[in-house]
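Researcher: Go.
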Amino acid sequence: MADLGGRRRRAFIGSFTAAGGPGIVAAAVDPADGALTVLGSVNGVPDPSYLALSAAGDTLYAVSETADGAVVAYRVTGDAPEQAGPPVPVGGSGPTHLSVFDGHVLTANYGSGSVTAVPVRPDGTLARVASGVLRHTGSGPHTRRQQAPHAHQVQPDPSGRWAVSVDLGTDSVRVCALRDGAPVLHREHALRPGSGPRHLAFHPNGTHAYVVNELTPTVTVCRWDASDGSLKPLAEAPVLPGAPAGDAYPSGLAVSHDGRFVWTATRGEDVISVFAVEGGGEALRLVGTVPCAGHWPRAVARSGGYLYVANERSGDVTWFTLDPETGLPRRAGAIPVPAASCVVLG
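Model: Structure:
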């Protein structure tokens, strides 16, 4: 079993309990082949759809993606996560993503179009939210999906100075800082109207970022300047080699540790797309697509030479070995996890 400085290598999988998911699943990661073995699970709160680990790796945070959104802390020193304190309301509905930033857990609240900062105590547990909510404003041209803001992701930038939130409803990326425990807008950057940005990932060089768009099957390549918190869109790259046969809703993306490849997942088409990174991070070239080995891939995660995919509707997590020369994934195995929604490696 994997061991990093006396700590086992593990994966944590979120799921939608409303669709039959088991809650949060903990699995061991085999260092020899990347295989997952289920260790235990906990079903304490509804719909823990997205997870994030503390820097020390001993505390796991989960959203509760419900109308009355909340965030929950878990101790993960044993085989199964153990809840550490009650759920903390986030003052927003439908949180879809969270991350750890500057002594807080940040949540992106899709339903209410807002970002919340929840204070983290020294022991890793969560304090109540005071006024730490930033409400987005605006809309987009997609009449059904963009009538209002829909914050879908929030995360720190590589410098640790800024928090970056992606809003599907307003076709924009917001750059924020924390002031007195509350997220404060620094700058908003517009992307192409109707693109529906969902998730963003940074290149290891810290000067480029890639935004996967849900409403059009593309990835937007951006230049990032941490000195002033500015994001400049450069180009869009299609995630498919041709027009989609039916539904095509890109979801997650990941960047290789050496910055040579980017992977995205597309629901409906049920494929993983592989991009070669060119021009020092300023361009993406589609290498090819491979089946995700399941249905409705909601999220992807990379760890070393392996890629993990949470297939929501087929109810499994599949792992792939990655060709070091081409970046192309090859299916290696899977475990059943009903209504799987994300995978986090620790």
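Model: The chain has no helices and 31 strands.
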